[in-house]
Amino acid sequence: MPRPVWRRTGTRSLHSLAPLMLLAAIASLTLTGCPDEGVVCTSGLTVCGDTCVDLGGDTANCGACGNACGAGQVCQEGACGCRPGTESCGGACVSTASDVAHCGACGNACASGQVCESGTCREGCSAGTTRCGDSCLDLSADPLNCGACGNVCPDVQSCHAGRCAYDVVTACYTNGQLVGIQAETDALGPRRQFGAGVQSLAAWDGFVLAADATNSKLLQAAGGELGTVVEEDSLGSVSASPNEMLVDPPYVYVVDSVNNTLQVLKREGAAQGGGLGLRTVTQIHLGPSTSPQAVAKWGSTLYIPLFGTAGSDFASGNAVARVDVSNPEQPRKLDTISLMGIDRKSFDGGTVLPLPYSATATDAGVYVALTNLNPYNDYRPNGPGMLARIDPADGGVSAIDLGAEACLNAGYVEGVGDQLVVACLGEARLDGSNGNRADAVRATGLVLVKDDVPVASYALSPGCEPGTSGCRVAVAGRFAVAGNAVYLGDTNAGRVFVVEVRDGQLVERRGYSTPQARGPALEACPVDPRRPVSNAIDLTALP
């Protein structure tokens, strides 16, 4: 029996499109900030005076311009309240882990001369903590005393090695914003306008690196100051498409899928604005029409998936380039490993190409996510989402079938502990009458792989009935990992779903698939009524 296929309602299918084409399709929709002649804010931001602010998360303008939250409070969803990790005791927001008057519980005061440490009254501070008043604290991790006594981290930031920063950062491509998330609580910080078209993210030493395709710049922001550029470095051509970055101190590798290049930047000390102090040391061309999509490192070799281009009939793609970086300032392309020899399990015996889009390196080898599409039929999946496993010792390639029912168009892969998580972009349908927004999708979500075998899957649900008024379907994209939690971006409606990897299962924490979820998906990148798509294009976790 032939497999059912999705039919087009207007033009062509969205995430059966090559991901690069999806980006190009929405690039023209991006707003670039506030023009000089009157302030115009992108979705989710409101004009207060002459500034665009997020009334849902700005403590100085919470719910309304000028409505400032009180001491110790943060703004969440437009209402002031106690910051995560504190609670209201007698009308004040306190940490019962360290407050001597409320040690372990509201009203539980320690005896005279005692201190409060980890919710317990003690006679003195234990080793590794610092006394701040009558509290014993770890200044490297306490958001109320981060790096120094009394230094309170703003809004929902955490304390990372004595510096305030968000745990996870999302880039909103369509809205031109960055938004921070606190892990564990999944609380959203305020949205900040940043760059003009951030396409990929990375994190290094407390800074967020944001590759801006519109301006062809590698922008840096402190992990707690997402609206402020502290350093910018050129990405070369004005038509750059920096699809992914790899931080490998003291170097950063950037692959450009339009200019077919690998750029190498090196950290050379703090810059004048306080950034990392990067400079480009070299750039190599990976070959015409190769369209490199990602980069992973195993030993002293980079593995770079080559998607290929339609103009060259994908003859230079469907492979993985290996680049020797034993001397990163003189990288040398070794060879390419073809992916065409694996059984791609065509649904109908017709054309299906690997079209690799992501890669990650583990002790077991290098794993490459294969979209497995038919580029000659609107880039529709014509085989299950797959992984290719490359043995670095001999370059041998084997395939892992992720299962067509759970996964079509495998687009991103990353390790979580000793397992792999794969994001499946699925096969979605574009509504051409509504600005090419996806109105239906199948086989999109996550797959968990253990010892090269799929062991669990998670289906992305929009929390509404597709096709009904106001329902925006969810389409999986890239994700970031914080602890055992996967923060998964939605490229159609701008949300972030949170899924835990637990006991060999994928357990939804924020989403719509299970009643046990902690709450709905995070509205990270709001939908602009002037724009049909809101793309949470990339996420990064700060260590």
What does this structure look like?
With 543 residues, the protein is mainly β. It has one domain: YVTN repeat-like/Quinoprotein amine dehydrogenase (Methylamine Dehydrogenase, Chain H, 7 Propeller). The strands form 15 sheets. Strands 15-14-13-44 form a four-stranded antiparallel beta sheet, with no helix packed on it. A four-stranded antiparallel beta sheet has the order 16-17-18-19, with no helix packed on it. Strands 20-21-22-23 form a four-stranded antiparallel beta sheet, with no helix packed on it. Strand 17 (207-212) and strand 18 (217-222) form a beta hairpin. The longest helix is centred in the N-terminal third of the chain and has 9 residues, at 19-27. The protein is globular and about 80 Å long. The termini are far apart. The model is unreliable at 1-37 (pLDDT under 50).
Q: What are the SSEs and their pairings?
A:
Layout: H1 19-27, E1 46-48, E2 51-53, E3 73-76, E4 79-82, E5 87-89, E6 92-94, E7 115-117, E8 120-122, E9 130-132, E10 135-137, E11 158-160, E12 163-165, E13 168-172, E14 177-182, E15 187-193, E16 198-204, E17 207-212, E18 217-222, E19 231-234, E20 242-248, E21 251-256, E22 261-267, E23 278-285, E24 296-298, E25 301-306, E26 319-324, E27 332-338, E28 356-362, E29 365-370, E30 373-374, E31 380-381, E32 386-390, E33 397-401, E34 410-416, E35 419-424, E36 427-431, E37 437-442, E38 445-450, E39 453-459, E40 476-482, E41 485-490, E42 496-502, E43 505-510, E44 536-541
Antiparallel strand pairs: 1-2, 3-4, 5-6, 7-8, 9-10, 11-12, 13-14, 13-44, 14-15, 16-17, 17-18, 18-19, 20-21, 21-22, 22-23, 24-25, 25-26, 26-27, 28-29, 29-32, 30-31, 32-33, 34-35, 35-38, 36-37, 38-39, 40-41, 41-42, 42-43
